[in-house]
Write a structure and sequence with these properties.
The chain is an alpha+beta fold and 463 residues long. The protein folds into three domains: 89 residues, no CATH class; 168 residues, Efflux pump adaptor protein, beta barrel domain (Elongation Factor Tu (Ef-tu), domain 3, Beta Barrel); 192 residues, Helix Hairpins (Orthogonal Bundle). The protein is 53% helix and 19% strand. It contains five helices and twelve strands. A six-stranded antiparallel barrel has the order 1-8-11-10-9-12. The protein has a four-stranded antiparallel sheet with strand order 5-4-2-7, with no helix packed on it. The longest helix has 97 residues. The two termini are 76 Å apart. The N terminus is likely disordered.
């Protein structure tokens, strides 16, 4: 009776194994699943006879599973071959970040912030004003420098005029003194000639005096004799008068000769005085030469003053340029195109020299990919690269290898590892590789790509 009931439900019994066998199709095709054997009926129960249709289904299922296993092996082999081909011609790393130029902007002078023209994340262009400091103190310094320069120029002009004046005075004094020397020398020569002439006249005058004395003595003797003869009446009055007249004439001639001697001596003295005067004039003229030379020294002093004034002008010009430059530093402008970041400055803030106020991130960025040293055998600058950024998982960027770092990242650390120790453990090092973007591949993403983004880089190194 029970067997009859099982036979009555035979169609349902055939469908049950089909459903239980089809479900394993969801498992991976690479692993063949064993087919469960039909369970025997418990003791005391009659076995259910197997349907010919169910047996046929079992055979078809086994063949399908075998076909799937062979196909899966072929697919896995093809995938493995393609992966091997790809990995032998490419090197990849996910240890990569976008790197860019971050320009720290600070003040080159100290002062009080008067105005801030930008905000965080704002785009700026090169030369655009960013911050302005209070300019009043630096404008005063600029005015003082201008006044110092003007004073130095006036002093230089005064020294230049002194040079011209002292030079002309020295030339005039030299000419005058040289003329006086020539005149004095001529006067000395003339006076010396007069002395010689006067000295030559003295003997002549003395000879005339001697002759006059002799004549006077003779006439006096004759006059005395004639007086005696006249007393005795031997001569007439006329003869006595003639003798007296001759005596008077001789005495006058003697006086004249004596006067001539005195005059000749006076001429000698006068000539000597003229020589002395001429020599005094020569000395005066020579003193004029010395004065002219002193004026020439004053001219040199004026020239030295002028050179000092010129140096003061150069110094004042430098101070003026420095003051103008310091004033220009109160206006802080953008050195490059980019975007503002890390702004920490406010109006009224007192800033010091070199203090960082904000940063500008320019539009020049690249990827620093830290490849293992074992991946660099065939890597060369110029090779093509694919770049995927975590921020844009559905977009692949292209680029090329620009350069390889001259040292590993560990060598640039603050404390490079010292392998010359007893605790050495070999660790595969990472070498930074600079990969630049192709401009066409980042078109439309220029403002979205920022330094610090994580990236995955694949370099086509070739077989």
């Amino acid at each position: 009776m029970k067997a009859a009931s099982l036979n009555g439900h035979q169609p349902k019994q055939v469908e049950i194994p089909q459903v239980s066998v089809i479900e394993p199709k969801q498992a991976p095709v690479t692993t063949a699943q064993p087919i469960a054997e039909p369970q025997t009926a418990p003791a005391g129960e009659s076995p259910v006879p197997e349907s010919p249709k169910a047996s046929k289904n079992w055979k078809g299922l086994k063949m399908a599973l075998a076909g799937l296993g062979v196909g899966g092996a072929i697919v896995a082999g093809a995938f493995g071959y393609n992966y091997w081909q790809f990995s032998s011609a490419h090197q990849s790393t996910d240890n990569a970040t976008v790197t860019g130029n971050i320009h720290s902007i600070g003040s080159r002078v100290s002062g009080t912030v008067e105005q801030v023209f930008v905000e965080d994340n704002q785009e700026v262009e090169m030369g655009q004003p960013l911050i302005r400091l209070d300019q009043r103190d630096y404008q005063i310094k600029l005015s003082q420098a201008q006044a110092d320069l003007e004073a130095a120029r006036r002093k230089a002009n005064s020294a230049q005029l002194s040079i011209a004046l002292n030079s002309k005075n020295a030339e005039a004094a030299t000419s005058q003194a040289q003329g006086g020397i020539g005149q004095a020398q001529a006067e000395i020569a003339s006076a010396q000639a007069q002395v010689s002439e006067a000295q030559a006249g003295v003997p002549q005058a003395q000879a005339a005096l001697d002759q006059a004395n002799a004549t006077l003595q003779k006439t006096q003797t004759d006059f005395n004799r004639f007086q005696s003869l006249f007393s005795s009446g031997a001569v007439s009055q006329r003869d006595l008068d003639s003798a007296r007249q001759a005596y008077e004439v001789a005495r006058a001639q003697r006086d004249a000769a004596s006067q001539g001697v005195r005059q000749a001596q006076a001429k000698v003295a006068q000539a000597h005085q003229a020589v002395a005067n001429a020599e005094s004039g020569l000395n005066t003229s020579q003193g004029g030469i010395e004065q002219a030379q002193a004026k020439g020294v004053q001219t040199e002093v004026s020239r030295a003053d002028y050179q000092t004034a010129q140096a003061a002008i150069a110094q004042a010009q430098t101070a003026l340029k420095n003051a103008a430059q310091q004033l220009s530093y109160t206006s802080i402008t953008a050195p490059v195109n980019g975007r503002i970041g890390r702004k920490n400055v406010q109006v009224g803030q007192q800033v010091q020299l070199g203090a960082p106020l904000l940063a500008i991130v320019d539009d020049q960025y690249w990827v620093t990919a830290n490849f293992k040293e074992t991946q660099l055998e065939k890597m060369r600058p110029g090779q093509k690269a694919e770049i995927k950024l975590d921020s844009f998982p559905h977009h692949t960027f292209t680029g090329r290898v620009e350069s390889l770092s001259p040292a590993s990242g560990a060598q640039f650390a603050l404390l490079p590892p010292d392998n010359a120790t007893g605790n050495f453990t070999k660790v595969v090092q990472r070498i930074p590789v600079r990969v630049v973007f192709d401009r066409e591949s980042v078109r439309g993403f220029e403002q979205a790509i920022t330094p610090g983004m994580s990236a995955e880089v694949t370099v086509e190194t070739g077989k």
